[in-house]
Amino acid sequence: MLQLALELIDLKKSYGALEAVKGVTLSIKPGEIFGLLGPNGAGKTSIISIITTLEKPSAGQVKVFGYDVEKDPMQTKRLLGVVGQEVVNSGFFDVFEILEFMSGYYGILKNKERIDYIMNKLGLYEHRQKKVKQLSGGMKRRLMVAKALVHKPKLLLLDEPTAGVDINLREDLWAYVRELQQEGMSILLTTHYLMEAEELCHQVGIIDRGQLKFVGPTNQIIEQFSAKKIMIKLRKDRDSITHKNFLKKKDGFFEFQIPSQESMGGLFRDLSLTLEDVEDIKTEQGSLEEAFKQIVSK
Ligand SMILES: Nc1ncnc2c1ncn2[C@@H]1O[C@H](COP(=O)(O)OP(=O)(O)OP(=O)(O)O)[C@@H](O)[C@H]1O
Ligand SMILES: [Mg+2]
Prior knowledge:
Number of strands: 14
CATH class of the largest domain: Alpha Beta
Radius of gyration: 23 Å
CATH superfamily of the largest domain: P-loop containing nucleotide triphosphate hydrolases
Strand content: 25-35%
Number of helices: 10
Oligomer: single chain
Strand order of the largest sheet: 6-7-8-3-9-10
Bound molecules: adenosine-5'-triphosphate, magnesium ion
Order of helices and strands: EEEHEEHEHHHEHEHEEHEEEHEH
């Protein structure tokens, strides 16, 4: 049987009267990049805090590679790497020292080779002798990612690793995440950059006010909850077209919006058009962002 990298089983978390997580069930397969998406306050960080045992669940269960995080925290901590949402300052140590301490924390005493490798990968090598307070915000984020990787975790949790990170660095960071995935790491990430999530994540979970609204393959959610646009320019131009999916005419193109799973053929049939009638045609696929808005506003 396939050993899942992560399993959340009817997970609940309340802070006093506030139900922040309302029975979330989902799983991540080994080697998968999973995007946990949702608006501010949806419960994403709460879920991550439970996985890392920083917080106790009010009900339900979390398993990391089959180990229960409450019963076997030592095992699960070893398997996990975590990049938290908040940037933490540890004042007087330099980058290399921090990564060395972090290795020590996992019981790895001689880790220079791995640390150098990670620093190189994350563009930190040239900054290795800087104290944390001498790093820029983006460098601090990269250091947080480096800290999460010293012990070669099998499941990496990234809570908005690219918040406040510039576009180039964001692309580098995501490229590195993809590389880690290709090396076999499983990854759970949260992000508010939905275009990036769309490119990166095999599966997504959409959570809103503690409730999981959708979980499944990224292309499936786009197909199910967004629309595609079809723009048609006719050989013999007309002033108008009457059709339920017609949006507008722009620059000589008639613009239609049809559900992503519907075909262009239906539209052609409805309009009694053949390819002979068409001068030019353009299509635009729906996006994860569109699907997200559909789900979260409902
Ligand atoms: N330690 C805490 N004590 C009380 N309430 C909390 C605590 N942590 C989170 N909450 C509340 O739980 C809810 C979910 O918060 P959480 O941080 O999990 O959201 P999030 O999805 O990570 O949001 P964001 O996108 O803003 O990071 C919010 O209403 C928040 O105010
Ligand atoms: Mg959060």
